[in-house]
Automatic annotation (TrEMBL):
The keyword Oxidoreductase applies. The keyword Oxidoreductase applies. GO terms for biological process: negative regulation of mitochondrial fusion. Signal peptide: none annotated. This is Vesicle amine transport 1. Gene3D superfamilies: Medium-chain alcohol dehydrogenases, catalytic domain (3.90.180.10), NAD(P)-binding Rossmann-like Domain (3.40.50.720). Keywords: Oxidoreductase. Residues 45-372 form the Enoyl reductase (ER) domain. Residues 1-31 are annotated as: Disordered.
Amino acid sequence: MSGEEATAPPAPAEQAPPQEQQAAGGGDAAAAEPQYRALVLSGFGGYEKVKVQVRRGSPCPRPGEITVRVRACGLNFADLLARQGLYERLPPPPVSPGLECAGTVQAVGEGVTGRQVGDKVMVLARAGLWQEIVTVPANQTYLMPDGMSFEEAAALLVNYITAYMILFDFGNLRPNQSILIHMAAGGVGTAAIQLCKTVENITIFGTASASKHDALRESGVAHPIDYRTMDYVEEVRKISPKGVDVVLDPLGGSDTSKGFNLLKPMGKLITYGVANLLTGQKKNLMAMAKTWWNQFSINALHLLHLNKAVCGYHLGYMDEEVELISGVVDKLVGLYSQGKIKPKIDSVWPFEQVADAMRQMQEKKNIGKVILISHCPFQCYAFKASSRNVRTLASESICTDHTQLLPRSDLCDIKHDASDPSPLNARLSQPAVSEQHISFPKFQTKFFFSGLQAVGDYWLRSMSRQSVNASCYSNH
């Protein structure tokens, strides 16, 4: 799976027990205690399960760790799955989600080399990064290149690592080939399109809703396909009767079979997610059963006769591959510095509007990456750590001057509060969105649902254990 569907290596970022902020007048000692905010998933379910909580204390890095003051966080499809209890790499609630973030090194633990206080870094972890302050192993951090904003840095790691590895390590993409990219306007989709353009004469087919087709054409998609009104298999066959060389499949279920049948001889299908599981705010047992029933399966002898390859990718299970991931990040940073790739930011949301941010992605309204920031740009906090073996950075403003808070003004209106004396009084205002409640048939017994739940959970566990790999490597 990817960052859209599931992702991120190493161990979760260190989590402090969530503590609600006490009422005013709780004493001088409580008032002086350092505080920072975190988004916490209290239980599995809808958007309301993720709330802002205030935590107290001074997280200090242990040997080999660094503490980072977070400036921007990435929202990934895996976070949506995690909220519903469909992402097996998330620790049990209550837990702070978040696979990636970017910020400034605040403190460095004993034995850490290559990182120092004040460095701007990108962070990758299994969970726990939707916080103002995080403490992580130093080898889970990567230096930001010159000229990169914190929002771009929070949009790079999960999506671009996934896109790079499935395109070049598994897909072995070469000049004059063709590719089908599902969810082409999403985070991994936009990253894959940009990376395809680093190879000569690649014909890109991309599925997305019709409203996104102009943006896809501008980004380099030769043949956008509206999956809602068209049969994408037929549309591809009209233009390329033999099919395509590579299919990127984040959907799962019956779409994996369709993708495999679209491959030319020597073609490669890379499956990296099960987005078809996500049909509403909460876990949908019918969608789980349907996806499990239609799951693609093939034996080695059949592959031998068809001259095709099937590859499975899940970044979340590459915990120990530090050198491999670091090598990919180095290549991506190089491509960014050369101007060949640039993360596309769809929208930026404060922690308080995390529900709107998740809705933006889940309803597939985004074109590019959805970003979370812990506060409005005019709010600043100071944080100080103390330890004999820790180098500290004190009294530094957490916030940064966001000159482009909302890259897509058609999604959110920027309004100014006349009562706010700050010149940076831009407020995020999202038009109200009415929820669409989906009704399902009522069954007479609970036995059916409990059995279906058991089947779904078993399928998710078995999927996480299965890894179909192909020895397809590229010197790209």
